[in-house]
Every structure is written in structure tokens, then in C-alpha cells.
């Protein structure tokens, strides 16, 4: 058990819940659902049920160091890995992998996004336990696949090789993987869902570090070599300087594209927990409890008239929001931004893209 | 000339430009048009071109005393009449009339709302000058009528007796009055406009105080008697106490209903200046210059996408207003209220009525 680690990736910049989430405080650090914990804290607590707390690792951006230490004060400095630049997931995972291997060559790890939502912990932990068992037994890279409930076009899809016999770990089935597809269009997504062969890519990976080491060596040797060269420097005062230099020359690459889509050792676990990447205001709306008019309201001082199916949030609890005659809108009021936008994903996305292309980056 | 006075009625509570106007600072004290002067100050300046400044009187509510003194510091205390309660226009005019008559029995006066907009001062002053001439020559109560340009249902209408020969004062025609009609429905308003006999009631009245005294005596003797009984008390330390007692027992009545609709001495001047009572957000929208998308925007920090024919005002100049996909809406952001409402008058009115019926009066 003590060779099992959890690597939480918490360096993302989050404008998808803009204007609640901001570059200075992205989604993983927010309590958007009003639970009393940030996504990062929920993620940590979920894994800490299976993984020893000393084996929890958070990889984040240098700029978020203080907020991670504030939200997870139990972490020692060696458990917080700081990236000087954003280079997508492959360098992030390589950094954590080779640092950990220096301490524990037998380590296996779950790699986890910090800002997803998982409802039923018990099923999740059973899936995770089974995945660790398989990862320790076979040289495979395991992804947790979520059975799709709708033809979502914002997720990646993993196709299981259903004609090949899956491995059965205590009733959990691990399939070989046929294809990866990033964000299909709606028509394709419908075909995927109907086929019964496709799973949503949850971004949760489990493997023994030796296995990922071997595959990184083979499939992205430049990046593997860079981070391997830190042997003897990790856990010393020289680590941060070394990492700065490595990140300066390392290319940006996702682990999906760099390894998973190319390796023949990938397996997908047909997971059965309730999962959402909560990547959009729309997913937030679908998840939250609505009043009898279909509104999700977190603005104690409000007067709504003929308002339906809207999300209305105000961080200014004293301000009266007097709203009339809107349907399917977001009204998000923060101290320095008021957003009023149709709820549908494309509208929000377009608005944010256009704002980021304008001279207004400072508000993101 | 020194017997001519101007009585500005500035006691109104204004929620019609809510949430910009509030009970603590109603419309007449605001610079809604962004000119650099409040409506009250514009009104004062307009009349001060014809009336000696020492003959300018402002009647307002006790609660607005400080704001009047701040906006019109040139006024002496005797020029500011303070009402302890709101009792509509008849007591307000009776108070000013009998106080002024004590000082100047020969006085004539123009009675003016404090929150209307008049564009062309020159035409206006010619009309006013002619009206004063007639008021000094004949025992008549003169109303300035505005030639209607649309079948407005929010104004009162005055029907001129066109078959009777008007009095001609330097080219300005004063007609006898046939009828008064308060806020007709649309169908009736169309008939009025088409007939050519009807004028909008601007709320601007000119008369010699002796004439209005006689008519008040005859048509609302209870109110006339109350304020006449202040003879010898006006301009003394006892005035405010006397006025408090009188307002405590005086009934609430409009001068239109109390005198003008009943008197046979009323004349309507066919005025030819550009006038608006600016009584609604819709009238504000119609008046203001719009950008090429039909928006009236007073929010320096804004990002608008697919926003058309809206009014967008923010008193928080630092806050970014990111708005998408709205047409014909008002977005008014003040320190303690955010209003989002369809622009059309009925929607705004209904929202305000419903808010005032709710427990939220404190925000009005």
C-alpha cells in the first residue's frame, strides 16, 4: 500500500467558470458548488481515503504555490511540485514520475485532474483499487472510462476493444483500447454513444511508474530524457533551478497525445461512478438543484420576475439583483465583473474567447 | 419685471429612473443625461434667464433641503420652501402662493416641475414671456401645451377650444380650454393627436397670484383657507411650525384636479419648444444618442457582443460589464442594485410596482 501515490494536477488556468474563476484563482481552488471545499480539497480528500497522506503529490504552477499551501496545509514542500511554465500534462507527469522514482522505484500512481467532480466515492474507490491491482500485476497504462450518458462533444472518447476479452479484476472489466478521439462533433458523438464501445476519457490514469517510464522513453524520449537528468537533484536545493531550466527547453505536450494514443499497453476500465468534469457553466447548471422556475440562484438579495432556467450568482450579498424577463441566461456578478450571457456553452465560450482576444486579458 | 416669480416644485420622489434615482436622491437631483447639471439646476438656469434670481422659489420636501442647498447654493433660506409631507401639487402651490403674496401682492408666477427637459431655451422663453404678458393683462390661468408628436399614453392632454378665437400675444396663441384628460388609452390618444385640438400638459403654469388665489378660494376653499391663515407668520421663525400643522391636516390634491379641470379661466398656450418629461427609461432611451448598434452605453468598462438597442449604465466605472445576446434591455448597475429588465415601459413599471409591494421598499 505504501508504494501507491496520487499525483494531482492542479496547474490549470481556469476561465471556464469566468468570471467566478480567474487566472489568479482558477476553478480548482474555488468552491463553485457551495460545499465548503474547493475542487482541489475535494479531490485530495477523495484520494486520501485510499492513499497515505504522505504519498499525495500536487503539481501546480509556481503562481499557485501559496493557495495550494493554504488549501492543503498538511502537504510538505516536497509534496508540492511547482511548474515555472505551463507545458500541458506530459512534462507535468514526467516531472512527478522521475522525482517520485528517485525516492520509490516501485511506486505506482493515480494521476488525477484537480477540478473534476465525482459523486459516489465508494464506487470510485472500488474502481481505483481494482485499477491499482491491475497496474501492479501487468505493464499497462490504465485509463478510467466513464460510460457516456449523452453525446457530449466537449469530452474525449476512448473506444474499448470489445471483441477482445477484458481482464476481470474483482468484477471490474479492463479492456484493451482501440482508439482515442478528442471532442467529436455531435453526429460522431451520437454514433459513439449508440455503439456501446466508447467511454468518456475522465483524465484519470493509473500505472506503475516503471511502465510509464518505459513508454515515455519509447514514445517521447526527449521529454523523458530531460526529466531523468534530474536524478540526484530532486529533493535537493537545486531542484527548483533545475526544473526552471528543463521547463525552459521542454516542449508542450499532452500525455494523451504523447503516450496514450500511441501506446499498445493502454487499458480502459469501464468505471461506474458518477463523474463530471464540470467544465462549463452548462454542466454546472445541469448538476445544481434548481428552483421551481428552473433557476439556480446564489444571490441572497434578489427579485426575479419572469426569469426562468437561469443561473444567477452574486458575490455581493448586499446588492439587490432585480431581474425580469430572461430565460436561459447566466448572470454572474463578481466584485469586478458582471457577466450577462446566454447559458448555452457556445455563447459563453465565444464571449470568453473574444474577451481574451481583446485588450481585456487582465480580467481573465 | 420684479413682480415675476418662478416656483419650482422639487419635492417629488422618483423611482421612475430606478435604480439610478432613489427616494433619497430622486430624479430632479440627478444628472441622468450626463450634462454636468442636475434637472433641478437646468430648470433653475432656464428660468433665471427671465426671472430675477431673488424671485426664484424652490418648494421641496424637508428631507431634500440639504441637497437643494448644495445644488443651488445661491438660494436664501426664504427661497426654499420645505414641505413636511407630500400632499401633491395643490398644497405645494397654495403654500408658495400665500407666502409670496404676503411679500408681493402683485406677484405673477410661473409654476414649474423640476425634472423635465426643455431643449430650446429661446423658444421657451418667448412662450413664457408671452404667457406672463397675458397673465398680467387678464385674469386667466395659463398652461403651456405641447403639440403632440405621438399618441403618448403617459401624459395628460389639454383640449383647446379651437372654434373660439384665441388671444394672440406677439404671435403666440392662447386658447380657451375645453377639456383635460389624464393619461388616455392608446386609441383615445391617437384620436387626440389626429384631431389637432389636443396638447400635452407640460405641467408648466403661469398666472397672477391674485387670479389663482380667487380660483383656489372658489374651488378648493379648505386648502386656500389653511394656507391663508399663515398671514403674518410667513417669513418669521414660526413659519415651519405653522406649515407642519397645516400639512398635518391638509388633504392631498393635485392642482389639475383641484382647480384647472374645474375653472373656466384656464387658457392653453400652443407652445413650440421641444419638451420631454423624461418620465421613463423609454423616454431616456429615445432621447439619448445611440451607438451604431442602437445601444446607449454609460459604462466605460464594457464588452458587448450581440447586444442591441439596450441601455447599459454602470456607476462602478471599474467593473467590467461583459454582456452578450440581449436586445431591448436595460442593464443598470448601481452600488447596491443591479437591474436587468426589458426596456419597454410596462415591464419596468411592473417590476418597480412589484418590488414596492414586496418587502424591498428600502431599495426604492
Walk me through the structure:
2 copies of one chain form a homodimer. In chain A, helix 3 packs across helix 6, helix 3 crosses helix 7 (221-228) and helix 6 crosses helix 7 (221-228). Chain A is built from 11 helices and 18 strands. The longest helix of chain A is centred in the middle third of the chain and has 17 residues, at 121-137. In chain A, the strands form 4 sheets. In chain A, strands 6-10-7-9-11 form a 5-stranded mixed beta barrel. In chain A, strands 13-15-17-18 form a 4-stranded mixed beta sheet, covered by helices on one side. The two termini of chain A are 42 Å apart. The first copy, chain A, has helices spanning 39-47, 65-71, 89-103, 121-137, 186-195, 209-219, 221-228, 239-249, 255-260, 281-287, 345-357; strands at 4-9, 56-61, 80-83, 108-113, 117-118, 141-146, 157-160, 167-169, 172-181, 198-208, 266-271, 275-276, 296-298, 302-308, 311-314, 320-327, 329-333, 337-342. Chains A and B meet through strand 16, strand 17, strand 18 and helix 11 of A and strand 16, strand 17, strand 18 and helix 11 of B.
Amino acid at each position: 500500500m505504501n508504494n501507491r501515490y496520487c499525483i494531482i494536477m492542479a496547474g490549470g488556468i481556469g476561465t471556464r467558470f469566468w468570471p467566478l474563476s480567474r487566472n489568479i484563482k482558477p476553478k480548482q481552488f474555488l468552491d463553485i458548488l457551495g460545499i465548503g471545499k474547493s475542487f482541489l480539497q475535494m479531490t485530495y480528500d477523495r484520494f486520501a481515503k485510499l492513499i497515505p497522506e504522505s504519498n499525495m503529490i500536487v503539481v501546480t504552477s509556481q503562481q499557485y504555490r501559496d493557495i495550494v499551501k493554504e488549501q492543503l496545509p498538511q502537504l510538505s514542500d516536497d509534496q508540492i511540485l511547482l511548474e515555472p511554465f505551463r507545458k500541458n500534462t506530459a512534462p507535468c507527469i514526467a516531472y512527478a514520475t522521475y522525482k517520485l522514482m528517485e525516492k520509490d522505484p516501485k511506486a505506482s500512481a493515480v494521476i488525477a485532474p484537480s477540478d473534476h467532480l465525482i459523486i459516489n466515492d465508494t464506487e470510485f474507490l472500488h474502481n481505483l483499487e481494482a485499477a491499482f491491482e491491475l497496474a501492479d500485476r501487468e505493464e499497462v497504462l490504465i485509463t478510467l472510462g466513464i460510460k457516456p450518458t449523452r453525446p457530449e462533444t466537449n469530452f474525449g472518447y476512448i473506444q474499448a476493444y470489445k471483441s477482445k476479452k477484458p481482464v476481470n479484476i474483482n468484477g471490474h472489466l479492463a479492456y484493451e483500447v482501440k482508439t482515442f478521439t478528442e471532442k467529436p462533433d455531435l453526429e460522431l458523438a451520437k454514433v459513439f454513444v449508440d455503439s456501446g464501445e466508447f467511454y468518456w476519457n475522465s483524465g484519470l490514469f493509473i500505472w506503475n511508474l516503471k511502465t510509464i517510464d518505459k513508454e515515455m522513453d519509447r514514445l517521447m524520449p526527449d521529454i523523458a530524457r530531460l526529466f531523468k537528468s534530474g536524478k540526484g537533484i530532486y529533493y535537493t536545493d537545486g531542484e527548483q533551478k533545475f526544473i526552471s531550466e528543463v521547463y525552459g527547453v521542454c516542449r508542450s505536450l499532452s500525455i494523451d497525445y504523447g503516450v496514450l494514443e500511441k501506446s499498445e499497453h493502454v487499458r480502459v476500465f469501464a468505471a461506474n461512478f458518477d463523474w463530471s468534469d464540470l467544465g462549463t457553466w452548462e454542466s454546472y447548471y445541469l448538476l445544481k438543484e434548481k428552483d421551481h422556475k428552473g433557476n439556480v440562484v446564489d444571490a441572497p438579495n434578489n427579485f426575479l420576475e419572469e426569469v426562468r432556467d437561469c443561473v444567477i450568482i452574486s458575490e455581493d450579498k448586499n446588492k439587490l439583483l432585480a431581474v425580469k424577463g430572461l430565460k436561459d441566461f447566466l448572470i454572474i456578478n463578481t466584485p469586478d465583473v458582471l457577466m450577462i450571457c446566454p447559458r448555452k456553452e457556445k455563447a459563453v465560450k465565444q464571449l470568453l474567447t473574444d474577451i481574451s482576444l481583446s485588450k481585456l486579458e487582465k480580467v481573465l
